[in-house]
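### Sample
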Amino acid sequence: MGVSENCKGLILAMGSSVFIGSSFILKKKGLKRAAARGTRAGVGGYTYLLEPLWWAGMVTMIIGEVANFVAYIYAPAVLVTPLGALSIIVSAILSHFLLNERLPKMGVLGCVSCIVGSVVIVIHAPQEQTPDSVQEIWDLATQPAFLTYVVATVSVVLALIIHFEPRYGQTNMLVYLGICSLVGSLTVVSIKAIGIAIKLTLDGISQVAYPQTWFFLTVATICVITQLNYLNRALDTFNATIVSPVYYVMFTTLTIIASAIMFKDWSGQDVSSIASELCGFITVLSGTIILHMTREQEESNNTQSRTLTWFIGEDSMKGVEDEHLIFIRDSEYLER
């Protein structure tokens, strides 16, 4: 008795989550080692490219992404996409033991809220129709509605890179993750087109001669490089246990929106599904706010701790000086 298609997709998706969750930690450790020897990635340095541990994380992430890509061939998106949340759990556990990055209880609640909300959104997301050729995907991609989304996405990404990243990149992780997630939604469309082209070519219907195939390949390459660059900066600047869930939430949400616009699946939804998706969005938003509040509170506590230590040190010095003055005065009194 053979393994069912859904079982194959399930195994691949779970394996993908383990690899991707581990890759965050490996790359973070590699970035830390690289920062100790040169310019940090968070301020534009590329020393991490010489760090073997960072490359181990990259290879691990590629394996995970390939497994995730193949999982979509065997199982529907409703089954595969929610399992991406497992990478957050893997990343959080490994961060605790390997990076000593502790996540407070409210942070755990934020992660759970993000995961639950994302799962609700994905489960109730509309089913997309699988195109039969690259040309069909091109026709879908050149629809006015999706072209509007592409123009809006590119405009926001450029605004984030040019205006917001120099000013707020080091203090607000949504700048880096916003770039990664927006570009990632375009990456998914391009990767899907490439996957269909490869599958059709292996089936004997060559898609190599179509210029759209090479166009999607070029777009995917540019988008992936951009994602990796800004994801590295986010990981180098902020806590990995916070970056992972927020990135997952934003990427998943924007990917669902992009797919819905491109494939026009929203028109077939009933009221209950739309209401469930709205509840999922609210849950995700709540989880993201909790995560931000947790991070800000943690930074505030660290600042207060450093300030308290300074004051204690100052008081101790004052005590030593006072005792020294008293000793001198007592000596003078005795001499007299």
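Residues 128-268 form one domain. This sample (Probable magnesium transporter) is used throughout the tutorial notebook.
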